[in-house]
Every structure is written in structure tokens, then in C-alpha cells.
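Anyone opening a protein record will find just a pair of labelled lines. The record below illustrates this layout.
***
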Amino acid sequence: MSTDYQQAREGLGVRLRELRLSAPDGRLTGIALARKLGWPNSKVSKLELGKQTATPEDLQQWAEACGQPAAYDELRARLAGFESHIRSWRRQLTSGHKSVQDAAAAEHERTRVLTIWENCLIPGMLQIPDYARHVFARHAELMRSPRDTEDAVRARIQRQEKLYQRGRKYRIMMWEGALRSLVCPPPVLVAQLHHLAGVIGLDTVELGIVPFSASLKIWPGNSFWVYDERLVIVEDWHAELWLDDSDSIATYLRVWKTLSESAVYGADAQKVINAARHALNPR
């Protein structure tokens, strides 16, 4: 967890403690507040010490239990401030994957140049429905989130219409491992690779593959997406990081440029894709 995020969470905890100690009807002990809210004593302690991230509902209940409901807006604003940079999957997937796709669609709508690095999956912008279906299902199982697979698939495929719009540019690069990861049955991956090969030549898409055989100047790390030069989204197992500071954006663009020096394009990329497809279906 980043230092800035943790400091912000601890700052929120200090403010929660201030509200508890300044309750109009007299200061509340942590035990008394927990009893009032029907929470374990440990939850009050963890929130005040910045060891647990509050939900908006937690903050509203806290403010009301401390007799200061008007403080909720301030608390919510504090939470939104640091959540805007680290968006946990647990929170994002409360209602399923479609809402996450909708948030991505909003960013895509205002973006003219999207720069993508993928190390283990075919990028969502290039996925076929069957492939996307398996990706969403596996992720929902891992995260124990609601299954809205078909709605999520439709939302993802609809976003791909932007690939064919003039004035947009998709600089997409992936590790060869993304072509060979069996996150779906082999026949589905064969169809996915056939579709991927068909994207090469679109005037809006610059598709590069970093082969296993390439000499690397830097290792293929986490997947990330750079929206114009205003936002980077980095994916990890626990969360997405939304970074909008110029230093972070510049770093990820440098990473992408360094990786691109090991990538192949055009006919050479076709050969790598075809080799992966042939390995699955040698006939």
C-alpha cells in the first residue's frame, strides 16, 4: 500500500476519533461507540488507527452515532480523495463487472490516444465474446463477486466500436505469454488469436508483440493503460491504481517505450500470433 494512501487513511482515522471524543452528548469510548453501532470493538480501533478502510456506510453510521451527522459530507470527501487513486476490486465489484466496464468506457470516451501494455491476457479492447466471458467468470470466482458476466461481456464488446472511429489511436503491446495463456479452452483461444491477427493493419491500431525470444531491456511487469497523457491505470490483484500525476505518467510511458524496443510489428507480429495458434491447433 502506498505511503500517501496510508497517510490519508490514518488522517481519516484521526478525524473519526475527534468526532467520537467531541460527541455533543459527551465523549464516547470506543467500546460504547461499537456497542451503539453493533460493531466489534476491533473495528472501531482499526478505523481510527488507519488499519482498515471505511466504507461510505461506515462513515455515515459513525457520524450519526457521534451525534454529528453533518460531518458525513466531510468524511465522504476525504474517503473519495484517496480512493480515487487506489480502487480496490472488492469495492469496485460490489455489483459486478459491468459497473467497472462502464467506468472504463467513460475514460475511453474522452481519450484519443490509448497506450496499453498487457503481460498475460489479450487486452479487453481486442477480446472476442467467448474469451471475455471466461476472463470475467474466472475473475468473479477469484474475487467472490456477483456474476453479471453477460452484461459485462456486452459492455466490453460495445466499447470496441471505438477501434473503428477516425481520430483515435490504440498503441497496444503485449507479451507473447498473453497469446499462450490458457485462461479459456484451447478452441476459444484459437478463435481469439485469429481475431487478434485480423486487427493488424487497422489504421487506428498499432499492435506489437514482445516475443519470448526477444532481448529485453526491462522485464514485463504489470499490465497498464495510459489514457492520453492524463491518466494511468495499473492493475494488481487487490486493486486498480489510478495515477494522474505527471511523474507517474512519464514513468509508465518510459516503460512502454522501453518494452516497445523489443516488440515486433506487422508481418513479424503475425508470425508470432500464428505460431501460438499453430501450437494449439497444429493441423
